[in-house]
Design a protein that fits this description.
Helix content is 48%, strand content 12%. With 126 residues, it is mostly helical.
Length: 126
Amino acid sequence: MRVLLVGSARERARLRAQANGSIEVAGEFDSLAAARACEIDSDAILVAPGPDLEVRAEAFDEPLTPREVQVLELLAEGLPNKAIAARLQISDQTVKFHVSSISGKLGAKNRTDAVRLAVRRGLITL
């Protein structure tokens, strides 16, 4: 797993030591904003808690609504927007809105990435 480490130099060193080679560090940053702004391909961002890092609300994911979870489960089945709309009895524009919201909350690049991230976070199962 490729991860980005966020925190002070000391806290990032502590994270590397705790990982004991079980993760691949793709990049290191002093702030969460800098890690999110980078274009390094990674699977996760590890934020080191500690006195050297000010952890702000943006470090915590916004939860998905129950309807977004339903849409995500149908995305995982490979259904197109029109089929999801028919199954949930909503418009395909509403489905597009939900897919966009899901992608934003998960930090996904596309539908497939949203499903991958949701599975990794335990939000849905395949």
